[in-house]
Specification:
- Two copies of one chain form a homodimer.
- Chain A is α+β, with helices and mostly antiparallel strands.
- Chain A has a single domain, classed as S-adenosylmethionine decarboxylase.
- Helix content of chain A is about 20%, strand content about 40%.
- Chain A is built from three helices and six strands.
- Chain A has a six-stranded antiparallel beta sheet with strand order 2-3-4-5-1-6, with helices on one face.
- The radius of gyration of chain A is 15 Å and the shape is globular.
- The C terminus of chain A is likely disordered.
- At the A-B interface, strand 1, strand 2, strand 3, strand 4 and strand 5 of A face strand 1, strand 2, strand 3, strand 4 and strand 5 of B.
Chain lengths: ~130, ~130
């Protein structure tokens, strides 16, 4: 069975971000909204939650799939993923905006094709070694 | 700069699923709710959207991060990701429930540690080859 790729899943690590910005739920929501637009995608729904004592999660439901961010102000770290299907969206542009918006000192980006092909047994449970 | 891992991001491809189930928004929402519980995580918010002519997206905001599914009934394919932080959640159990619930004929699972370390320039833009 072969299935064409449906899109790209960008996994972005942001390090050395501004802790105040990472803990500002309204700022995080606006950043995700702007990143969706920057990535040429359509934001259909945005939900968020501010954790105690700190940290924010925001999830954007896109016409093209989803965008998410989870923040750890205490370490200046944010975990982002942007999954877009189709040929129009540019998830790397969304990632670049978030890097700038949170003043990330360092970052790492992986782009994973999704739905490209049926898996083989050897592929099941494979750990991506790209970051580790 | 070194940052300890904050959690695991499971990227799950489901192939050969039941198209009727993949296109049933209520079923997809219940599956994600049950998968969150199965994975020992806490679902704080669940949003979904049914696309025309077909396809469903559902996003769950977890106390531990997020769970998502995007379905393509026309090819029997679903793209899932389950990102959980902390030591309690078991994202593979959530993935296993979704494989069973949608009667997936084949699947592929990648587990990506998140926030493990600061990136090197060589790691930026790395394409995970595990599936391709």
């Amino acid at each position: 069975m072969t299935i064409p790729p449906v899109g790209s899943h960008c996994i972005l690590e942001l390090y050395g971000c501004d802790p105040t910005l990472l803990n500002d739920e309204a700022f995080v929501r606006q950043a995700l909204t702007d990143a969706s637009r920057e990535g040429m995608s359509t934001l259909l729904n945005l939900t968020s939650h501010a954790f105690e004592p700190q940290g924010v999660t925001a999830l954007g439901l896109l016409a093209e799939s989803h965008i998410s961010i989870h923040t750890w102000p205490e370490t200046g770290y944010a975990a982002v993923d942007v999954f877009t299907c189709g040929q129009t969206a540019q998830p790397e542009l969304a990632c670049a905006l978030l890097r700038r918006r949170f003043n990330a000192a360092e970052h790492a980006l992986r782009r994973l094709p999704r739905g490209r092909q049926a898996p083989t047994p050897q592929q099941e449970g494979v750990l991506c070694q790209a970051q580790n």
